[in-house]
Amino acid sequence: MKSYMARPLEVERKWHVIDAEGQTLGRLSSEIARILRGKNKPQYTPHVDTGDFIVVVNAEKVVVTGRKAEQKVYRRHTGYPGGLRETSYEQMLARKPTEVLRKAVRGMMPRTRLARQQFKKLKIYAGPEHPHAAQNPQPYEVN
Questions:
Q1: Domain count of the chain?
Q2: pLDDT tens across 69-108, in order?
Q3: Under 8 Å CB-to-CB from 76, ≥6 apart: which residues?
Q4: Which residues form the domain of 57?
Q5: How many CB atoms are located within 10 Å of the residue 111 CB?
Q6: Exposed, middle or buried, 137 (CB in 10 Å: 0-12/13-18/19+)?
């Protein structure tokens, strides 16, 4: 019996739409990362992009547990001396609500060329509307 390996041209990609309203940030992010990589399919192959497209709506209504809303901090560095910039979760959610979910999913993906390619299949929108109706995305229920 031979092992099955998916080929890039054989992969069937689906479009899923996920409503993030009331979902916990970490649990939702891990499920999205799993689907982007294709680990929810039986033909998953580590070195081939077998994942699906994901459209996330209502990203501004994602929740965090405990006191993370006040305590969680996003850090970045400008590259200059003394250039460490900090942004709290509340500020990030007010200014760029889609970046909160994008950074959470990015942190759960591997640091490879393939993962960067898979990450481009994620579309995040703060409100309930999205411009991907032509692709006919199917609703996806996150447990």
A1: 1
A2: 999 999 999 999 999 999 999 999 999 999 999 999 999 9
A3: 84, 85, 87
A4: 15-64+98-139
A5: 8
A6: buried
